[in-house]
Amino acid sequence: MFNKPRQQWKTIDEMVYGIDDYFNTSKDSNGKREKAIIEAFNFHYKNNLFYNQFCKHRDITPNDIKTF
User: What are phi and psi of 20, to 5 degrees?
Assistant: First the structure.
């Protein structure tokens, strides 16, 4: 992952770069998948003005994301 040490990876990094076959993961991965989705939502909500305004227009906040 562009030379970022693995111990600094977030859950989303692990899901994208650390799994050999994302589409054939076990159902046990759902917790990790959910955490990665919430992580990604939070990142874009905080760092993307368009996304943030879109979510606010739709009345969606990071606290609304509970499951994948």
Answer: -65, -45
Residue 62 neighbours by CB distance under 10 Å: 14
Q: Taking the domains of the chain in order of start, what are their residue ranges?
A: 7-64
Whole-structure pTM value: 0.68
pLDDT at 28 over 80: no
* Residue 11: HSE in the Cβ half-sphere, 13 Å Cα cutoff: 15
- Among 5, 4, 19, 10, CA closest to 41: 10
Q: Cβ contacts of residue 29 below 8 Å, gap of 6+?
A: 15, 19
